[in-house]
Design a protein that fits this description.
Two copies of one chain form a homodimer. Chain A has one domain (about 10-239): Rossmann fold (3-Layer(aba) Sandwich). Chain A has helices spanning about 15-25, 45-55, 70-75, 105-120, 140-155, 155-160, 175-185, 210-220, 230-239; strands at about 10, 35-40, 65-70, 125, 165-170. In chain A, strands 3-2-1-4-5 form a five-stranded parallel β-sheet, sandwiched between helices. With about 240 residues, chain A is of the alpha/beta class. In chain A, strand 1, helix 1 (about 15-25) and strand 2 (about 35-40) form a beta-alpha-beta unit.
């Protein structure tokens, strides 16, 4: 774990448990931390509310929420449930690309964060990418993140004119969901403020993929998720 | 000049003279051509109307207009005239970065086009980037475009799983504004449908940077711009 160092950071903050943990990590240093939330496709406004609450909790320097109607652009099971994932994104070999893969999503997100960072003189871009539990996503692999880092030097006036080096920080890259919860727990992530469910009700549905991953993480870490549906009281009532 | 070949294309179409010329080039082949327009910041709806008219003229397969409020994200003279360009984007050495530089703009645009392309099985991304008359933009240089091409293989399921190669086509890269007009004229670009002015009135203002560049191009090519203000009739009336 590194401290944030000089130059300031921008954190891609979705409102979920991964990006909340990343924000907690970035906030440990003394350099200013900014947050960028990209509201795309069918992701519910509930998630943006979670991101805002997390930004306030960690007292970020600035927090911009960008509405990007990515669903029309990039059909995916994650942005439009009526569509099937296009054939080009289906795996042909051993590693399976999940149906929730959104074409070029992290390239789009990192590009927006790069613009945000350059405009504000920030040099570190934090992302909750994870290559263990989500190994099927091509844009969650270290090779991709390093390639984007190289690109950012050529893509910006800061890089070309001043030799600025942008760093992509992906501290969760090799952690399991359980390890992420354990890390977040040590850093004091306010889990109650986070939101993982793909649906947007008042409580998480407990059934979607994202709820399942979250439950797995908390179970593995032996931590109680304050947002989980109250299972025991319900059972008690049935007696 | 190459034909479009197999696999299909997506053209980043702003509605200006450069991207109209690129669309004309991409449309010469038999492979399907799609258009992507990114409406950002203060760029006027007039420009989007021009893009739509061009898309219809060249009978593109599909045309998506994405509204991206990039101004809040990336302050620039182009997206917010009240703001000064941040210090980090100012040139320190010989080449000057123009005040209209939008941090990471082409990275953001190409990323969106990459997602669009992957989702539809397209392999060629066309962009009107130009390194001659706009040499100050870091993300209009060939090094940047080649780096993005390399990144796209690592960034996508198509690249990683199927070894797909995305190609960034920037056929105007080394052309002057005059050469672009001459090329567009040969290809039959309907100049009357294009829009270059930074302002959004009924007629181009004739005074902004973009109008000046356009006028320079038409003058150099010896072509009459059908959208230029009618200078002569006005003078005649004064006699």
């Amino acid at each position: 774990m590194r401290s944030t160092g000089a130059g300031g950071s921008v954190v891609l903050l979705s409102g979920g448990m991964d990006s909340a943990t990343v924000l907690a990590l970035a906030s440990r240093g003394r350099a200013p931390v900014h947050a960028l939330t990209i509201q795309y496709g069918q992701r519910h406004v509930r998630e943006v509310r979670a991101a805002r609450a997390l930004g306030r909790h960690f007292a970020v320097e600035s927090h911009v929420v960008v509405r990007l109607p990515i669903g029309a652009l990039v059909p995916s099971a994650l942005t439009d449930r009526r569509r099937r994932v296009p054939a080009t994104t289906r795996a042909r070999r051993t590693t399976e690309v999940p149906a929730t893969y959104v074409p070029a999503r992290n390239t789009i997100f990192l590009s927006l964060a790069l613009g945000y960072a350059e405009a504000r003189g920030l040099r570190r871009i934090w992302i909750g990418a994870n290559a263990i539990d989500y190994s099927g996503y091509p844009d969650c692999r270290p090779e991709f993140l390093r390639a984007f880092e190289r690109l950012s030097r050529l893509a910006t006036a800061a890089g070309v004119e001043q030799g600025a080096r942008f760093r992509i920080e992906a501290p969760l890259l090799r952690l399991s969901k359980g390890e992420i919860v354990a890390l977040g727990e040590r850093l004091g992530v306010p889990w109650a403020l986070t939101w993982s469910c793909y649906r947007g009700g008042r409580r998480p549905c407990g059934r979607c993929d994202s709820c399942a991953w979250r439950a797995k993480g908390f179970r593995e870490a032996g931590v109680v998720d304050p947002t989980a549906p109250p299972a025991r009281p319900r059972r008690l009532r049935r007696r």
